[in-house]
Amino acid sequence: MALLETIGLSKSFGGLRAISNLDVDVEAGSIHGLIGPNGSGKSTFFNLVTGVYQPDPGSKIFFDGLDITKSPSHKIGALGIARTFQLLRLFSEMTVLQNLMVGYHTHVSYGFLKTIFNNSAIAKIDAQTSDEMMELLEFIGLADFASMPASELSGGQRRLLALGRAMAMRPKLLMLDEPAAGLSPVNVDRLMAIVMALKERFGLTVLIVEHILKVVMETCDTVTVLDYGQKIGEGSPSEVKDDHAVIEAYLGQEMDDDEIRAALNA
Amino acid sequence: MNAVASLLEYPSSYIEKLGNIHRILPWIMAFVVLLPLPHILETTLNEYYVYLANRICIFIMLCVGLNIVKGFCGQVTVGHVGLYAIGAVTSALISLHLGWSFWISLPLGVFAAGLAGVIVGLPSVRLEGAYLALATLGLGESVRIMIAVTPFFGSSTGLISIPSPAIGGFVFDTYRSYYYLVMTAALIGIYLSFSILRSATGRAFMAVREDTIAAAVHGINVTKYKLLAFVISALYAGAAGGLFAHMPPGYIHHNNFTIIEMVTLLLMVVLGGIGHIWGGVIGAIIVTIIYDQTLEFYFYQPLLFGLSMVLIVLFMPRGIGGMIDRYLVTKRFMAIQEGKSNGAS
To answer: Residue B339: its chain A contacts at CB < 8 A?
Structure first.
């Protein structure tokens, strides 16, 4: 069964159609890749699914059988969709541990009033949460930095923290927006190993946008290729690699001399 | 910095030990330590300084409240002083016209300020930064003008002979007795702000301050928490206002709620350190004393405070509290590095 399903998903910014009529099915338990040239609508797709943007009328998004097309971001997050951002958007003035605790927010069992009237119970619950989060930090290898502000971390550590913060939500679907951008090849492998380990451990479904094609080709079960907001190819990595339309989108159309001359004069 | 830190190390470790036995113990200790203060001030200086201590306590409450919405939730509000006025006027009017006791009028004033806090907070749903500041400025200033032009609210004469609070036969009608009331209130205020801000609610506030989109995606209802921050800070302002109104000689005037007062309040928070609870307290103490000692140069005070605000924002953006935090972080980082090199060798 598809865990995430979009039907006729469209989004226009003024006259520009960033996404048009896109149907994507993300199967439960799979690793689904989303690739395409710059500006092909990958990040817009993420923002639509997580409620950061509102899709155009007529679009439908289903998660786990529920219609989430019009749900606000925080409700979508509470349902079990976690995501990372291309530009990370960490809570940089907060400590590493606090970043994860915010991620755990939807699972916190007490309300605001209890924080005033039942202090010791809160302290106990928070201590328990922080133990769990430390375990997660241990897993991604940031435990030493738990009490440091996130702004003090290096670039690679920040990417790990963004992943950890998303994982603290205990999600069903983890959406990664270019998780490996700017990492050295060694660190890319390390990061992907951690993602795979997390997937095994928590039984995740992963949707990943990535420019490093090696990552996509090696890890994904299914790949969807976007260009100008439309789906131009879908299938296993090896199928997609040989798809004519995909090659054209990435490398450009083959032109003969007359066509080049015409293009230059135009 | 190092010398100051080592000086503070012993008492802070002692307080920590107390806190481990029961979290309320350090606060009881602080209460006991602060009890003889008016006596000391009266004998070494004079009664005026007890009055100053009262003002400091009220400003601490205002600062701690403002810090929640501005420091922790990141919403730039300049309407706080209006909420303070609403708390003061409501409590004063109820006890003047209905003759109800302080213990009923104060909570009602706090409640009224809380309701007004929702209204001041509403623009924050749509506006950010300077635009939000302008909107809240308008709301805060309109409260003052309402008071200034309505005879019922005091207009130009102000409200006079607001009754003093009393428990049984004991009346809080001197600066000294009133000090015990405001000091207790300030301590409770600080304590509550710690319990709120060290919980999931406080973390949600900070997340909203850092990045609203990331906060929303991680399951935080941004609108709800923004409004909650405004309401909590309004409750603090209302309580501070009520306490101010009933403070001997029981007199409030719309001049107590001007934009200058608001700038002073902002200066306290900025100097103490935005998003730092103790910073707000330190800022309130320092700025109230400076304000008081420079009263002779009344006309230049706005210049002095405005200028120092600019200088602090430029050269010390995290304030005193931020400097302390910075020091602690560096120390912790050094400890990690040391631990690593020890482990390697």
So the answer is: 144
